[in-house]
Amino acid sequence: MKYIVIVGDGMADYPMEQFDQKTALQYARTPNFDQVAKDGTLGLVQTIPGELPPGSDTANLSVMGYDPLKFYTGRSPFEAASLGVDLSPDDVSFRCNLVTLSSEEPYDQKTMVDYCADEISNEEAKELIKAIDTELGSDQLDFHPGFRYRHLLVWHGAPDDWNLTPPHDISGQKVTEFMPEGSKGSFIKEMMERSYAILADHPVNKRRVEKGLNPANSIWIWGAGRKPQLIPYPEKYKLKGSVISAVDLVKGLGLFAGLKPITVEGATGYIDTNYKGKVSAALNALQHGDDFVYLHIEAPDECSHRFEVDNKIKAIELIDQKVVAEVREELNRADYDYSLLLVTDHATPLSLGTHTREPVPFAFCRSNELDNNRSNTFDEVCASKTGLLIEEGYRLMDLFLKRST
N or C end of the chain: which has fewer CB within 10 A? Predict the structure, then answer.
Protein backbone atom coordinates (compact mmCIF):
# COMPACT_ATOMS: atom_id res chain seq x y z
CA MET A 1 0.00 0.00 0.00
CA LYS A 2 1.23 3.48 -0.95
CA TYR A 3 0.00 6.60 0.85
CA ILE A 4 -0.42 10.16 -0.40
CA VAL A 5 -1.66 13.16 1.59
CA ILE A 6 -2.89 16.23 -0.32
CA VAL A 7 -3.15 19.35 1.84
CA GLY A 8 -4.99 22.42 0.51
CA ASP A 9 -3.73 25.05 2.95
CA GLY A 10 -6.46 27.30 4.34
CA MET A 11 -9.26 25.99 2.08
CA ALA A 12 -11.88 25.90 4.83
CA ASP A 13 -13.89 29.09 5.28
CA TYR A 14 -17.09 30.69 6.56
CA PRO A 15 -20.35 31.06 4.58
CA MET A 16 -20.34 34.27 2.54
CA GLU A 17 -23.19 36.33 1.13
CA GLN A 18 -21.58 36.52 -2.31
CA PHE A 19 -21.42 32.71 -2.36
CA ASP A 20 -25.17 32.46 -1.57
CA GLN A 21 -24.27 31.76 2.08
CA LYS A 22 -22.02 28.88 1.08
CA THR A 23 -18.38 28.40 2.04
CA ALA A 24 -15.65 28.54 -0.58
CA LEU A 25 -15.47 24.74 -0.60
CA GLN A 26 -19.23 24.49 -1.14
CA TYR A 27 -19.25 27.16 -3.83
CA ALA A 28 -16.25 25.97 -5.85
CA ARG A 29 -16.65 23.25 -8.50
CA THR A 30 -14.82 20.27 -6.98
CA PRO A 31 -16.06 17.00 -8.51
CA ASN A 32 -12.78 15.24 -7.72
CA PHE A 33 -12.74 16.34 -4.08
CA ASP A 34 -16.31 15.10 -3.84
CA GLN A 35 -15.41 11.77 -5.39
CA VAL A 36 -12.80 11.14 -2.72
CA ALA A 37 -15.50 11.86 -0.11
CA LYS A 38 -17.93 9.55 -1.89
CA ASP A 39 -15.41 6.73 -2.25
CA GLY A 40 -14.22 6.67 1.34
CA THR A 41 -14.44 8.27 4.78
CA LEU A 42 -15.49 11.89 5.35
CA GLY A 43 -15.39 13.84 8.61
CA LEU A 44 -14.01 16.78 10.56
CA VAL A 45 -10.67 17.04 12.34
CA GLN A 46 -9.60 19.49 15.04
CA THR A 47 -6.04 20.19 13.91
CA ILE A 48 -5.26 22.99 16.37
CA PRO A 49 -5.41 22.39 20.15
CA GLY A 50 -7.23 25.06 22.11
CA GLU A 51 -4.10 25.98 24.03
CA LEU A 52 -2.12 26.94 20.91
CA PRO A 53 -2.52 29.72 18.33
CA PRO A 54 -4.10 28.74 14.99
CA GLY A 55 -1.41 28.50 12.35
CA SER A 56 -0.05 26.39 9.55
CA ASP A 57 2.74 25.24 11.86
CA THR A 58 0.56 23.68 14.56
CA ALA A 59 -2.00 22.50 12.00
CA ASN A 60 0.44 20.72 9.69
CA LEU A 61 2.21 19.24 12.70
CA SER A 62 -1.14 17.67 13.65
CA VAL A 63 -1.91 16.48 10.13
CA MET A 64 1.50 14.80 9.94
CA GLY A 65 0.65 12.85 13.08
CA TYR A 66 2.42 14.76 15.87
CA ASP A 67 0.68 16.14 18.95
CA PRO A 68 1.46 19.89 18.94
CA LEU A 69 1.07 20.00 22.71
CA LYS A 70 4.07 17.67 22.98
CA PHE A 71 6.21 18.59 19.98
CA TYR A 72 5.55 22.24 19.08
CA THR A 73 8.32 24.66 20.07
CA GLY A 74 7.62 27.48 17.59
CA ARG A 75 7.29 28.03 13.85
CA SER A 76 10.64 29.23 12.62
CA PRO A 77 12.79 26.20 13.61
CA PHE A 78 11.00 24.25 10.87
CA GLU A 79 11.87 26.98 8.38
CA ALA A 80 15.47 26.98 9.62
CA ALA A 81 15.73 23.26 8.87
CA SER A 82 14.42 23.82 5.34
CA LEU A 83 17.09 26.47 4.76
CA GLY A 84 19.83 24.16 6.03
CA VAL A 85 20.41 26.18 9.20
CA ASP A 86 21.27 23.88 12.10
CA LEU A 87 20.18 25.35 15.43
CA SER A 88 22.15 24.76 18.61
CA PRO A 89 20.36 24.24 21.94
CA ASP A 90 20.81 27.89 22.95
CA ASP A 91 19.58 29.31 19.63
CA VAL A 92 16.17 30.84 19.09
CA SER A 93 15.11 31.30 15.48
CA PHE A 94 12.56 33.83 14.26
CA ARG A 95 10.60 34.30 11.07
CA CYS A 96 11.74 37.52 9.39
CA ASN A 97 9.21 38.82 6.86
CA LEU A 98 9.88 41.54 4.35
CA VAL A 99 6.74 43.69 4.59
CA THR A 100 5.33 46.96 3.33
CA LEU A 101 4.52 49.52 6.02
CA SER A 102 2.98 52.96 5.56
CA SER A 103 5.09 56.10 5.98
CA GLU A 104 3.68 57.54 9.23
CA GLU A 105 6.08 58.34 12.06
CA PRO A 106 6.91 57.15 14.63
CA TYR A 107 7.31 53.52 13.63
CA ASP A 108 4.53 52.18 15.83
CA GLN A 109 2.00 54.45 14.08
CA LYS A 110 2.54 52.79 10.72
CA THR A 111 0.00 50.49 9.06
CA MET A 112 0.65 46.97 7.77
CA VAL A 113 0.00 47.66 4.08
CA ASP A 114 1.21 44.33 2.69
CA TYR A 115 2.58 41.40 4.72
CA CYS A 116 4.40 39.98 1.66
CA ALA A 117 5.49 43.14 -0.20
CA ASP A 118 3.70 42.17 -3.41
CA GLU A 119 5.29 38.70 -3.30
CA ILE A 120 8.76 40.19 -3.73
CA SER A 121 11.08 38.15 -5.95
CA ASN A 122 13.85 35.95 -4.55
CA GLU A 123 16.55 38.04 -6.23
CA GLU A 124 15.28 41.32 -4.78
CA ALA A 125 14.73 39.79 -1.35
CA LYS A 126 18.28 38.41 -1.16
CA GLU A 127 19.69 41.89 -1.78
CA LEU A 128 17.55 43.35 0.98
CA ILE A 129 18.31 40.64 3.53
CA LYS A 130 22.01 41.00 2.75
CA ALA A 131 21.72 44.71 3.54
CA ILE A 132 19.90 43.92 6.78
CA ASP A 133 22.53 41.37 7.83
CA THR A 134 25.33 43.83 7.04
CA GLU A 135 23.76 46.55 9.19
CA LEU A 136 22.03 44.57 11.94
CA GLY A 137 23.88 41.25 12.03
CA SER A 138 26.38 40.53 14.81
CA ASP A 139 28.03 37.72 16.74
CA GLN A 140 24.61 37.09 18.28
CA LEU A 141 22.34 37.80 15.30
CA ASP A 142 22.41 36.03 11.92
CA PHE A 143 19.98 36.84 9.10
CA HIS A 144 19.44 34.15 6.46
CA PRO A 145 17.67 34.64 3.10
CA GLY A 146 14.72 32.36 2.44
CA PHE A 147 12.04 32.42 -0.23
CA ARG A 148 10.40 35.60 -1.53
CA TYR A 149 9.18 37.49 1.56
CA ARG A 150 9.91 34.71 4.09
CA HIS A 151 13.33 34.87 5.79
CA LEU A 152 15.08 33.83 8.99
CA LEU A 153 16.76 35.40 11.99
CA VAL A 154 18.82 33.27 14.40
CA TRP A 155 19.58 34.80 17.78
CA HIS A 156 22.25 32.94 19.75
CA GLY A 157 21.43 32.90 23.43
CA ALA A 158 18.03 34.57 23.09
CA PRO A 159 15.35 34.35 25.81
CA ASP A 160 12.11 32.36 25.34
CA ASP A 161 9.48 34.77 26.67
CA TRP A 162 8.10 36.16 23.40
CA ASN A 163 4.72 37.49 22.38
CA LEU A 164 5.02 38.23 18.65
CA THR A 165 2.27 38.78 16.09
CA PRO A 166 2.27 37.32 12.54
CA PRO A 167 2.09 40.17 10.00
CA HIS A 168 -0.64 38.45 7.96
CA ASP A 169 -2.89 38.71 11.02
CA ILE A 170 -2.80 42.51 10.99
CA SER A 171 -3.16 43.42 7.32
CA GLY A 172 -4.58 46.93 6.97
CA GLN A 173 -4.19 47.66 10.69
CA LYS A 174 -1.94 50.06 12.57
CA VAL A 175 0.92 48.14 14.17
CA THR A 176 0.58 50.12 17.43
CA GLU A 177 -1.00 47.29 19.41
CA PHE A 178 1.22 44.58 17.93
CA MET A 179 4.72 45.64 18.90
CA PRO A 180 7.00 42.82 20.16
CA GLU A 181 6.56 41.86 23.80
CA GLY A 182 8.90 39.99 26.13
CA SER A 183 12.00 40.70 28.19
CA LYS A 184 13.82 41.74 24.99
CA GLY A 185 10.79 43.02 23.10
CA SER A 186 12.20 46.55 22.91
CA PHE A 187 15.33 45.19 21.22
CA ILE A 188 13.27 43.49 18.47
CA LYS A 189 11.25 46.67 18.02
CA GLU A 190 14.44 48.71 17.67
CA MET A 191 15.70 46.27 15.00
CA MET A 192 12.48 46.63 13.02
CA GLU A 193 12.66 50.43 13.30
CA ARG A 194 16.28 50.41 12.09
CA SER A 195 15.33 48.11 9.21
CA TYR A 196 12.89 50.72 7.93
CA ALA A 197 15.69 53.29 7.78
CA ILE A 198 17.88 50.77 5.92
CA LEU A 199 15.29 49.55 3.43
CA ALA A 200 13.01 52.50 2.65
CA ASP A 201 15.47 54.13 0.23
CA HIS A 202 17.30 50.99 -0.88
CA PRO A 203 17.83 50.85 -4.68
CA VAL A 204 15.75 47.65 -4.87
CA ASN A 205 12.78 49.47 -3.37
CA LYS A 206 13.27 52.57 -5.48
CA ARG A 207 13.01 50.36 -8.57
CA ARG A 208 9.93 48.62 -7.17
CA VAL A 209 8.16 51.91 -6.52
CA GLU A 210 8.97 53.05 -10.08
CA LYS A 211 7.26 49.89 -11.33
CA GLY A 212 4.19 50.52 -9.19
CA LEU A 213 5.03 47.72 -6.73
CA ASN A 214 4.93 47.86 -2.95
CA PRO A 215 8.39 48.43 -1.44
CA ALA A 216 9.70 45.87 1.05
CA ASN A 217 10.53 48.67 3.47
CA SER A 218 10.73 46.84 6.81
CA ILE A 219 11.39 43.49 8.41
CA TRP A 220 8.79 42.03 10.74
CA ILE A 221 9.97 39.56 13.38
CA TRP A 222 7.72 36.76 14.68
CA GLY A 223 7.41 32.95 15.05
CA ALA A 224 10.12 32.40 17.68
CA GLY A 225 11.14 28.87 18.63
CA ARG A 226 13.87 26.40 19.52
CA LYS A 227 14.85 23.22 17.68
CA PRO A 228 12.18 20.50 18.16
CA GLN A 229 12.62 16.73 18.36
CA LEU A 230 10.19 14.65 16.27
CA ILE A 231 10.07 10.87 15.95
CA PRO A 232 10.90 10.28 12.26
CA TYR A 233 8.46 8.46 9.99
CA PRO A 234 10.71 5.42 9.39
CA GLU A 235 10.63 4.85 13.15
CA LYS A 236 7.14 6.13 13.95
CA TYR A 237 5.21 4.58 11.05
CA LYS A 238 7.81 2.31 9.37
CA LEU A 239 7.41 4.34 6.18
CA LYS A 240 9.89 5.94 3.79
CA GLY A 241 8.55 9.17 2.37
CA SER A 242 8.88 12.63 0.89
CA VAL A 243 7.40 16.09 1.36
CA ILE A 244 6.57 18.46 -1.51
CA SER A 245 5.83 22.10 -0.77
CA ALA A 246 6.88 25.59 -1.82
CA VAL A 247 6.75 26.65 1.84
CA ASP A 248 9.88 26.39 4.00
CA LEU A 249 7.76 25.71 7.08
CA VAL A 250 6.27 22.52 5.62
CA LYS A 251 9.54 21.35 4.06
CA GLY A 252 11.31 21.84 7.37
CA LEU A 253 8.58 20.04 9.27
CA GLY A 254 9.01 17.16 6.83
CA LEU A 255 12.76 17.12 7.44
CA PHE A 256 12.26 16.81 11.19
CA ALA A 257 9.77 14.01 10.44
CA GLY A 258 12.36 12.10 8.43
CA LEU A 259 10.76 12.90 5.07
CA LYS A 260 12.87 13.86 2.06
CA PRO A 261 12.03 17.33 0.70
CA ILE A 262 11.53 17.42 -3.07
CA THR A 263 12.08 20.75 -4.80
CA VAL A 264 9.81 21.43 -7.77
CA GLU A 265 10.82 24.09 -10.26
CA GLY A 266 8.13 26.76 -10.53
CA ALA A 267 6.53 25.96 -7.16
CA THR A 268 5.69 29.41 -5.82
CA GLY A 269 3.33 29.00 -2.88
CA TYR A 270 0.72 31.02 -4.75
CA ILE A 271 -2.01 30.45 -7.33
CA ASP A 272 0.55 30.41 -10.17
CA THR A 273 2.42 27.43 -8.70
CA ASN A 274 3.53 24.47 -10.83
CA TYR A 275 0.68 22.05 -10.09
CA LYS A 276 1.73 19.61 -12.81
CA GLY A 277 5.31 19.55 -11.55
CA LYS A 278 4.20 18.83 -7.99
CA VAL A 279 1.97 15.97 -9.12
CA SER A 280 4.72 14.48 -11.28
CA ALA A 281 7.19 14.68 -8.40
CA ALA A 282 4.75 12.96 -6.02
CA LEU A 283 3.92 10.14 -8.42
CA ASN A 284 7.58 9.63 -9.32
CA ALA A 285 8.48 9.36 -5.64
CA LEU A 286 5.81 6.70 -5.07
CA GLN A 287 6.84 4.82 -8.19
CA HIS A 288 10.51 4.75 -7.20
CA GLY A 289 10.57 3.54 -3.64
CA ASP A 290 8.61 5.91 -1.40
CA ASP A 291 5.74 4.54 0.68
CA PHE A 292 4.38 7.98 1.61
CA VAL A 293 4.17 11.47 0.09
CA TYR A 294 2.95 14.66 1.77
CA LEU A 295 1.88 17.07 -1.00
CA HIS A 296 1.13 20.59 0.24
CA ILE A 297 -0.42 23.44 -1.78
CA GLU A 298 -0.31 26.90 -0.21
CA ALA A 299 -2.40 28.91 -2.71
CA PRO A 300 -5.85 29.03 -1.00
CA ASP A 301 -4.29 30.29 2.23
CA GLU A 302 -2.36 33.06 0.48
CA CYS A 303 -5.51 34.16 -1.38
CA SER A 304 -7.42 34.38 1.89
CA HIS A 305 -4.70 36.43 3.59
CA ARG A 306 -4.89 38.85 0.67
CA PHE A 307 -8.72 38.90 0.64
CA GLU A 308 -8.71 37.64 -2.97
CA VAL A 309 -12.18 36.11 -3.15
CA ASP A 310 -12.19 35.03 -6.80
CA ASN A 311 -8.64 33.70 -6.60
CA LYS A 312 -9.45 31.53 -3.59
CA ILE A 313 -12.23 29.84 -5.55
CA LYS A 314 -9.89 29.49 -8.51
CA ALA A 315 -7.14 28.02 -6.30
CA ILE A 316 -9.50 25.40 -4.85
CA GLU A 317 -10.74 24.44 -8.30
CA LEU A 318 -7.17 24.19 -9.63
CA ILE A 319 -6.24 21.80 -6.82
CA ASP A 320 -9.33 19.73 -7.65
CA GLN A 321 -8.59 19.61 -11.38
CA LYS A 322 -4.81 19.69 -11.61
CA VAL A 323 -3.85 17.80 -8.46
CA VAL A 324 -6.52 15.47 -7.11
CA ALA A 325 -7.88 14.45 -10.54
CA GLU A 326 -4.41 13.85 -11.98
CA VAL A 327 -3.15 11.97 -8.93
CA ARG A 328 -6.13 9.62 -8.86
CA GLU A 329 -6.05 9.02 -12.59
CA GLU A 330 -2.39 8.04 -12.53
CA LEU A 331 -2.64 6.01 -9.33
CA ASN A 332 -5.55 4.03 -10.75
CA ARG A 333 -3.20 2.93 -13.53
CA ALA A 334 -0.45 1.92 -11.11
CA ASP A 335 0.37 -1.66 -10.19
CA TYR A 336 -0.05 -1.07 -6.45
CA ASP A 337 -2.87 -0.25 -4.04
CA TYR A 338 -3.01 3.26 -2.65
CA SER A 339 -4.67 5.33 0.05
CA LEU A 340 -5.32 9.05 -0.52
CA LEU A 341 -6.03 11.62 2.20
CA LEU A 342 -7.44 15.01 1.22
CA VAL A 343 -7.46 17.60 4.00
CA THR A 344 -7.26 21.30 4.69
CA ASP A 345 -4.93 22.10 7.57
CA HIS A 346 -7.02 24.94 9.01
CA ALA A 347 -9.62 27.50 8.02
CA THR A 348 -8.54 30.89 6.67
CA PRO A 349 -11.81 32.81 6.26
CA LEU A 350 -11.86 35.41 3.50
CA SER A 351 -13.85 37.69 5.79
CA LEU A 352 -10.99 37.76 8.33
CA GLY A 353 -7.83 37.23 6.32
CA THR A 354 -6.29 35.11 9.06
CA HIS A 355 -6.36 31.59 10.50
CA THR A 356 -9.09 30.25 12.78
CA ARG A 357 -9.32 27.10 14.85
CA GLU A 358 -12.60 25.43 13.83
CA PRO A 359 -12.54 21.72 12.89
CA VAL A 360 -11.88 21.29 9.17
CA PRO A 361 -13.00 18.66 6.64
CA PHE A 362 -10.96 15.63 5.64
CA ALA A 363 -11.68 12.65 3.41
CA PHE A 364 -9.69 9.57 2.57
CA CYS A 365 -10.24 6.62 0.30
CA ARG A 366 -8.42 3.39 -0.45
CA SER A 367 -8.20 1.82 -3.88
CA ASN A 368 -9.11 -1.60 -2.47
CA GLU A 369 -11.97 -0.36 -0.22
CA LEU A 370 -14.22 2.00 -2.19
CA ASP A 371 -17.33 2.73 -0.09
CA ASN A 372 -19.36 4.65 -2.70
CA ASN A 373 -21.12 7.10 -0.37
CA ARG A 374 -23.05 8.90 -3.11
CA SER A 375 -24.36 11.74 -0.96
CA ASN A 376 -20.97 12.95 0.29
CA THR A 377 -19.38 16.21 -0.82
CA PHE A 378 -16.06 17.58 0.42
CA ASP A 379 -17.04 20.63 2.46
CA GLU A 380 -17.52 21.77 6.03
CA VAL A 381 -21.31 21.22 6.14
CA CYS A 382 -21.40 17.72 4.69
CA ALA A 383 -18.42 16.66 6.78
CA SER A 384 -20.17 17.82 9.96
CA LYS A 385 -23.27 15.79 9.06
CA THR A 386 -21.31 12.53 9.09
CA GLY A 387 -20.90 12.82 12.86
CA LEU A 388 -17.22 11.88 12.61
CA LEU A 389 -15.02 14.35 14.50
CA ILE A 390 -11.41 13.61 15.36
CA GLU A 391 -10.89 15.86 18.35
CA GLU A 392 -7.13 15.28 18.62
CA GLY A 393 -5.93 16.12 15.14
CA TYR A 394 -2.73 14.11 15.25
CA ARG A 395 -4.80 10.92 15.45
CA LEU A 396 -6.06 11.44 11.89
CA MET A 397 -2.78 10.11 10.51
CA ASP A 398 -3.06 6.98 12.65
CA LEU A 399 -6.57 6.41 11.28
CA PHE A 400 -5.47 7.02 7.70
CA LEU A 401 -2.48 4.69 7.98
CA LYS A 402 -4.50 2.11 9.94
CA ARG A 403 -2.13 2.33 12.89
CA SER A 404 -3.30 1.77 16.47
CA THR A 405 -3.76 4.97 18.47
Answer: C
What's the rounded Cα separation, in Å, for the pair 228 and 89?
10
Q: Are residues 140 and 7 in the same domain?
A: no
Distance CA 192, CA 171 (A): 17
The whole domain housing 32 covers 2-72+230-400
Q: What is the pLDDT of residues 278-305, one digit of tens each?
A: 999 999 999 999 999 999 999 999 999 9
Rounded to the nearest 5 degrees, what angle is found at the Cα of 262, between the Cα atoms of 295 and 362? 10
294 alpha carbon, distance to own chain's centre? 13
Give CA–CA dist 52/357, Å, rounded. Answer: 9
Q: Is residue 77 part of a domain?
A: no
Q: How many Å apart are CA 293 and CA 276, to the nearest integer?
A: 15
Residue 106 region by backbone torsions, left for phi larger than 0, else alpha for psi between -120 and 50, else beta: beta
How does DSSP classify residue 237? T
In whole angstroms, what is the distance from residue 221 CA to residue 212 CA? 26
Listed in sequence order, the residues at least 6 apart from 222 whose beta carbon sits closer than 8 Å to its beta carbon are 75, 94, 95, 97, 164, 165, 166, 167
Q: Is the dihedral of CA 76, 79, 85, 88 positive or negative?
A: positive
Tell which residue, 49, 7, 18, 22, has the closest CA to residue 379.
Answer: 22
Backbone angles phi, psi at 291, to 5 degrees: -95, -20
The pLDDT tens digits of the residues spanning 99-134 come to 999 999 999 999 999 999 999 999 999 999 999 999
CB-based contact 80:87 (threshold 8 Å): yes
Strands 141-147 and 260-262: unpaired
The reply to whether 177 and 190 lie within a common domain is: yes
Domain count, the chain: 2
